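Below is a filled-in request sheet from our internal design queue. Each sheet records the structural input a requester submitted and the sequence that came back. We keep these sheets so that new team members can see what a complete request looks like end to end.

REQUESTER: design group, bay 2
PRIORITY: normal
MODE: inverse folding
CHAIN LENGTH: 143
BACKBONE (tokenized):
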């Protein structure tokens, strides 16, 4: 009887600890998925708000570039959010279709928007594109 207790008790303890780690891992995955959904919903809310911009922005078009003349920081932020959303939509439209992915904006570089296509499971970027929203062109981003 003592031999069963000496061998069985540590085995039961290890099983309880392993089960706890498995449950914690599943809970952490659910929390991360919920955060991604909330971030995606908040990004969609921002992009929906930017589509309703007032027509008060004055845009002077020259031969080579578009110059936006506005000094309101909120309008600048809204215009930037609209451009980021437009860059993601261009990638969705022009890039090869992939399943089980989501799109993130990684910032800007030299006037181009950097958009990553990330795997839902691993969160690792599959492909990163640099997007020119004016000419609607994509290039695979290489730093």
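RETURNED SEQUENCE:
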């Amino acid at each position: 009887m003592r031999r069963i207790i000496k061998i069985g008790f540590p085995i039961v303890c290890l099983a309880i600890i392993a089960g706890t780690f498995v449950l914690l891992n599943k809970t952490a995955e659910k929390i991360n998925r919920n955060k991604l959904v909330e971030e995606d919903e908040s990004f969609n809310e921002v992009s929906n708000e930017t589509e309703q911009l007032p027509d008060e922005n004055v845009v002077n078009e020259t031969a080579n570039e578009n110059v936006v003349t506005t000094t309101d920081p909120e309008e600048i932020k809204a215009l930037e959010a609209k451009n980021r959303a437009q860059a993601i939509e261009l990638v969705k439209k022009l890039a090869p279709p992939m399943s089980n992915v989501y799109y993130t904006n990684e910032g800007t570089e030299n006037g181009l928007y950097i958009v990553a296509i990330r795997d839902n499971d691993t969160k690792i970027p599959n492909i990163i594109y640099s997007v020119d929203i004016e000419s609607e062109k994509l290039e695979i981003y290489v730093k």
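SHEET NOTES:
- The radius of gyration is 24 Å.
- Confidence is low (pLDDT under 50) at residues 47-66.
FILED BY: M.R.
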